[in-house]
Model the fold of this input.
Amino acid sequence: MVTKTVFQFISEPSDVNYGGNVHGGSVMKWIDQAGYACASSWSSSYCVTVYVGGIRFYSPIKIGHIVKVEAEVIYTGTTSMHIAINVFSRNIKRNDFEKKTHCIIVFVAVDDEGNSVRVPEFVPETEHQKQMEKYAIKLMDLRKNIEDEMKPFL
Ligand SMILES: CC(C)(COP(=O)(O)OP(=O)(O)OC[C@H]1O[C@@H](n2cnc3c(N)ncnc32)[C@H](O)[C@@H]1OP(=O)(O)O)[C@@H](O)C(=O)NCCC(=O)NCCS
Done:
C-alpha cells in the first residue's frame, strides 16, 4: 500500500502575509490537505482530524517559490492514522529544497454517519519507517502527559 502523498506547486501572491512571505494559515491549509489525502488514501475512507501537534515553522516561505508538501503514514491504531508532514520550498532557480515546517496530524476514518471505522494496519518495513513509528509512539506517550496537564483548563 502507498504510505506517502506528495504535493508540489508554486506559492501564489494570494498566499501572502503582512510581512510579504507566505501566510502561516496557507501552510496549515496545505498541511491539512496533504495529510487528508494521505490518510484517506490509506484507509479508502473519509477521515476527520482529531489532533494536530508539534507544528514548527523553521523559516519563512517566499511567494513564487516551489513548495513541496510530503505526508506519510507513520503509525496506525484501530481507527486512527498518525501522519507526519514536512513542508519544503525552493527558489525556482535552485534545485535544493529547504525544510520549512514539520508537524504530526492524527486522522480518524469515519463512515457516512460519522462513526469511527477500522483502518488497515501500517507495518513498517524500511529503517526510516521503523524509526518514524517509534517517533509516533514516543509522541503518544508525551501527549498523555501534556493532556493530563491541560485537563484543568479544557
Ligand atoms: C473522530 C471521532 C468520530 C472519534 O470519535 P470516537 O470514536 O468516539 O473517539 P475515540 O475516543 O474512540 O477515538 C478514536 C481514535 O482517535 C484517537 N484519538 C482521540 N483523541 C486523540 C488525541 N487527542 N490525540 C490523538 N489521537 C486521539 C483515539 O486514540 C482513537 O484511535 P484508535 O482507534 O486508533 O485507538 C470524534 O472525535 C469526532 O467526530 N471528532 C471531531 C472531528 C472533527 O470535526 N475534526 C475537524 C474537522 S475534520
